[in-house]
Amino acid sequence: MAGSWFNWLSKPKEDVAQPTYGMSVSAYHFKNVTLEPEAALRNATVFTCVRILAKTVAQLPWSVVDAEKSGFVPVDHAINKLLKRPNSAMTPFEFKFKIIHDYLVYGNVYLLKVLTPSDRVTELIPLDPPKIEISKSLSGARTFKYEGARTYSEKEIVHIRDFIGLDVKGLSRVEECAELIVQANTLDANLTERTKTAGRQNGVLIYDGSMSPESKAAISEAWKERYGGTMAVLDGGPKFTDTSGTSPADSDTQSLIELEIKRLCGVFDVPVEYLQISDGKFSNLSQKNSEFYSNTISPLCDVVAEKLTQSLIFDDGMAIKFNGAEMKKGDLAATTKIANESYSAGILTLNESRRLAGYSAVDGGDKFVEAPKSPEPSSHNDYDADSTGQYGPRTSEGYSNE
Questions:
Q1: Coil, strand or helix: which one is 57?
Q2: What is the number of other CB atoms lying within 10 angstroms of the CB of residue 180?
Q3: What's the chain's Rg over C-alpha atoms?
Q4: Which residues contact 163 (CB under 8 A, 6 or more apart)?
Q5: Mind listing the pLDDT tens digit for each residue in 193-211?
Q6: Which neighbouring-strand residues pair with 115?
Q7: 23 three-state secondary structure
Q8: Signed CA dihedral, 302, 307, 313, 314: sign only
Q9: Distances (CA, A) of 36 to 98, 147, 161, 182, 263
């Protein structure tokens, strides 16, 4: 038996199957990584964050409103027709989705204004950001060359930028965070490779007695065909030892992946719970939606709406606005209760209370309600004590407590 063990252990190292564990490439050794924006969308977290933000904004109604009034008060305006049908190829949902997609992925949105001879805008056509070259003259005027061919003036292009600095272009979130995304992709690839081999069972079979090398090879081959793993056959006793095991690197990799997901969600200001991969529970979903709107969606809407207003609206007091009332109301019951109590107590006017609850003002609503008067306390002069010391109102019939 000892000889059998010695013979097996004495085999050259290359003849023995050696399982490999851990990562072949460290996820934190990337420097000066470049990543094309389109390639970044192959990362599941980046793709999901962009999709969540783009579809959320795309679902919100928008219109030209009276900027002087609070709330969302649409007005009749020629640009509303353009917002309802931006161009012949896209629905309003697709158009808004495309704007947010380009804004988040490329850091720049370019909308070509199709103009009539009288400068009326009839269509807004999104241009592919990577195909745009921007030049800036000494006077500060910018020109936009598309695909190295036609050049457009600022009058013809609506340019929306993310992370605005001194450059004429906005910064791309995925390009600036390329190292983080490549790290996450490496971790995913490593875990995928480990998953491929997870179903393979490896082991050592110690056989009672001696066995020819051909028989050992046949058993090992049969095991590999059936279970996909490796089997070492030894002489010296009927015993099987499972050596498949799980590498400690597997749990480390999973922890690192979860960390990378949280960091990528932070880049896009998306709560990790929205990716439906967290065990976290919302104690108040409406309140969570309200915070998501205030911290993430509202700033996106404001950037787009203000730029479109600047480029398309030339009437004083008018602006393009998104209606996020349903998202920003939060806990409607609690907000309405506070508004009602504040108005009833004379702390807020009717219109101030309506604005607090997310509603527009009404005519005559800028007044305080008169607080109800408290009943005047009765004087003890109208009461006499009876023989027990208790007081009761004095009447012609005697005391009321008699």
A1: helix
A2: 22
A3: 36
A4: 107, 170, 171, 173, 176
A5: 766 655 555 666 566 667 7
A6: 121
A7: coil
A8: positive
A9: 18, 18, 18, 11, 19
- Helix 178-196 vs helix 248-268: angle between axes, to the nearest 10 degrees? 150
- Calculate ∠ Cα 289-294-298, nearest 5°: 110
At residue 286, the 3 state secondary structure works out as helix
User: Structure tokens of 41?
Assistant: 């969308």
C-alpha separations of 325 from 4, 206, 322 in Å: 79, 72, 9
What is the rounded distance in angstroms from the CA atom of residue 124 to the CA atom of residue 95?
9
| Alpha-carbon span 86 to 124, nearest angstrom | 5
Sign of CA dihedral 261, 266, 267, 269: positive
Strands (E), 299-389: 318-322, 383-385
Question: Whole-angstrom Cα distance, residue 344 to residue 351?
Answer: 13
Measuring CA to CA, how many Å separate 57 from each of 81, 96, 300, 302? 19, 7, 8, 11
Is 89:73 a contact under the CB 8 Å cutoff?
Answer: no
Please state, in angstroms and rounded to a whole number, the distance separating the CA atoms of residues 13 and 35: 41
CB 275 within 8 A of CB 261: yes
In whole angstroms, give the CA distance from residue 9 to residue 205. 14
Q: How far is it, in rounded angstroms, from Cα 355 to Cα 351?
A: 6
Nearest to 353 by CA among 345, 364, 342: 342
Length, in residues, of the chain: 402
Predicted confidence (pLDDT) per residue in 309-365, tens digit: 999 999 888 999 999 877 766 556 667 788 888 888 888 888 888 877 767 778 888
SS3 state at 36: coil
Flag the least confident range among 223-227, 253-257, 374-378.
374-378
pLDDT digits (tens, 9 = 90+) for 116-137: 999 999 999 999 999 999 998 8
* Residue owning tokens 């003849």: 15
Token duo for residue 198 = 């997870």
DSSP structure string for 379-390: PGGGEEE-TTS-
CA torsion sign for 42, 43, 48, 50 is: negative
The DSSP element (H or E) to which 123 belongs, if any, is strand 121-127
In 3D, which of 172, 171, 178, 131 has the Cα closest to residue 34? 178
